[in-house]
Amino acid sequence: MFSVTFGMVLGFAATGTFAAQPSEVELMKQAKITKGKAEQIALAKVSHGIVKSAEIEKEKEQARQRTAEDEKLLAEWRAKRDQLRSGVREDLLRHRATRHTRHH
């Protein structure tokens, strides 16, 4: 399967030498079309093609969102735990933690 990345599409459009390759940000500033439009053009020209960078970015964004949700839930659970522990003497919590770690 032939794949086309956005970098390749920009690479064809960019001029210059291999020694001084512009960064992706610089290429984006020079681009006459949007990244999405470039992906559409590339996919239209290549049958069964995929744009891996777009897929990876979507997956990364989904992972970031899930991480943020998990961190929020973890903070809520820690707050509940701390609230419940506030009514228990510190020496009892310390004893429980010591017993728990020895047996496992």
Q: Keywords for this structure?
A:
disordered N terminus; mainly alpha; 104 residues; 2 domains
What is the secondary structure topology, with strand pairs?
Elements (H helix, E strand, L loop, with lengths): L5 H8 L10 H7 L4 H11 L6 H34 L4 H14 L1
What can you tell me about this protein's structure?
The chain has helices at 6-13, 24-30, 35-45, 52-85, 90-103. By secondary structure, it is mostly helical. The protein folds into 2 domains: 1-50, no CATH class; 62-104. Mean pLDDT is 75; it is low at 1-6 and 13-17.
Identify low-pLDDT runs.
1-6, 13-17
Radius of gyration: 26 Å
Query: What's the overall average pLDDT, rounded?
Result: 75
Order of helices and strands: HHHHH
> N-to-C terminal Cα separation, in Å?
50 Å
| Count of folded domains | 2
Strand proportion? under 5%
Main beta sheet strand tally, sense and closure: none
Structural category is: mainly alpha
* CA-based shape: rod-shaped
Helical stretch tally: 5
> What is the subunit organization of this protein?
single chain
Number of β-strand runs: 0
Helix content range = over 70%
Summarize the structure.
The chain folds into 2 domains: 1-50, no CATH class; 62-104. Helix content is 71%, strand content 0%.
